[in-house]
Amino acid sequence: MVTDPIADMLTRIRNAHLALHKEVSVPRSKMKESLAAILKQEGYVDEVSAEGNVIKIQLRYHKGKAAIAGLKRISTPGRRVYVGHSDIPKVQNGLGICILSTSSGVMDGQTAHDRKVGGELLCEIW
User: Fold this and answer.
1) How far apart are CA 106 and CA 117, in angstroms?
2) Does the predicted TM-score (pTM) go above 0.90?
3) Fold of 5-66
4) In the chain, which segments carry CATH 3.30.1370.30?
5) 71-125 in CATH: which number?
6) Which residues pair with 26 in a beta bridge?
7) How far apart are CA 75 and CA 53, in angstroms?
8) Which of 64, 85, 99, 124 is the most exposed place for a label (fewest CB within 10 A)?
9) pLDDT at 1
10) Which H or E run contains 105?
11) Crossing angle of the two packed helices 5-18 and 30-41, in degrees rounded to 10
């Protein structure tokens, strides 16, 4: 049984990039679908498709290097991290993104800041 499904998803993506896989499959949930959609929207992955109980994520590479240089889980089941809209961090001085779970849904840090909404800081990606 997985106690932290988001960390499991991020670890699967990280391991697939290190092994230079073209795609990775993760168990399906609404939260993970939202995370994958944000990764596609920001250009970190090529394609996201949900089939049955699985989400298939096509990984993006540029000249043999992964588009995602790093992933970090911030809020964990044992330690939740909440931020207000003015406290949303800049990841790698603006080169990366952070993903928040807000009352308006899952969104990246810049969108949350523009809408002046805070929430749970899920992860950072650069």
Assistant:
1) 11
2) yes
3) Ribosomal Protein S8; Chain: A, domain 1 (3.30.1370)
4) 5-66
5) 3.30.1490.10
6) 55
7) 25
8) 64
9) 79
10) strand 105-108
11) 40
Q: How confident is the prediction for the chain on average, in pLDDT?
A: 96
N- to C-terminal Cα distance for the chain? Answer: 29
Closest among 107, 100, 104 to 80, alpha carbons compared: 100
- What is the helix (H) or strand (E) element at residue 38, kind and residue range? helix 30-41
What digits encode the pLDDT tens for the residues 90-108?
999 989 999 999 999 999 9
Nearest residue to 74 via CA among 2, 126, 39, 114:
126
Residue with tokens 């944000």: 38
Name residue, tokens 């499991």: 8
Between CA 69 and CA 78 the distance in angstroms is 26
Tokens of 11: 């670890």
Question: Model confidence over 10-31: pLDDT tens digits?
Answer: 999 999 999 999 999 999 999 9
